[in-house]
Amino acid sequence: MSYQNKVAIIIGNGTSRRDIDLKELTGQAPIYGCNALYRDFDDWDYLVCFDQGIVTEVRNSHYPFKGTVIVPPADLHFEDAEYSPQRRRSNAGMLAMREAIQRKSKILYCLGFDFLLEGEVSVDNVYKNTLNYGPETHANMSDNYYRIKYLTWFAEKHSDCKLIFVFHDGSKRKTVYAENVYYMDSSVFLNKLTH
Fold first, then answer.
1. Which residues are within 8 A (CB) of 166 and not within 5 positions of it... i.e. 6 or more apart?
2. How many domains does the chain have?
3. 48, 92 in Cβ contact below 8 A?
4. 37 with 47: CB under 8 angstroms?
5. What pTM was computed for the model?
6. Per the domain annotation, does 55 fall within a domain?
7. How far apart are CA 127 and CA 101, in angstroms?
8. Is 87 domain-assigned?
């Protein structure tokens, strides 16, 4: 994979992303991280901060960030009004995908989007029960249903983009009924990085 403007890597915070050494991603494509990613990885190009606690934490940290911190306006903290008038709360991963597409990326490799996995792992988070990741921020299984529906709409709206979700080999994944959504084993993804 070469560093091209059309490719982006989106790093969500589901536990499945632990399969990949994030340092191997540096320089491969623009990296969009989510929320507390800055705590243990600093080679992102953009960090999308969504929850107010994390926004405050990032602003109060004295890290010399190399990348750009993006705090989307409050209106974007909810699903697109075109999708649903109910406008459920969105998430940093979807907002990071949106930011990458706005910057002309057409192929998005998405890591740690575990709501697409089967079982309890689908609601876990690498930062669960740490500062600003208390019980009020925990996802539940019913959230997954709505996240998948919104992702399906989002994918169809951006049908000119390929959305590739990377998970460990052999993981049980839920079906997304959009023609531009793909799954890739982490071993295949890592092989693409080196070739």
1. 20, 109, 110, 111, 183, 184, 185, 186, 189
2. 1
3. yes
4. yes
5. 0.94
6. yes
7. 26
8. yes
Q: What is the CATH number of the domain that holds 97?
A: 3.40.50
Distance of CA 100 to the CA centre of its chain: 11
Any domain includes 1: no
148-179 pLDDT, tens digit each:
999 999 999 999 999 999 999 999 999 999 99
Cα distances from 15 to residues 12, 50, 90, 109, 120, in angstroms, run 9, 19, 19, 16, 11
Residue given tokens 């992303």 in the structure block: 17
Specify the DSSP class assigned to residue 22. Answer: G
Closest CA relative to residue 51, chosen from 16, 78, 77, 12: 77
CA of 160: how far to CAs of 60, 82, 152, in Å?
38, 18, 14
From CA 122, how far away is CA 144, in angstroms rounded? 8
Query: What digits encode the pLDDT tens for the residues 35-70?
Result: 999 999 999 999 999 889 999 999 999 778 899 999
User: What range defines the domain where residue 25 resides?
Assistant: 7-194
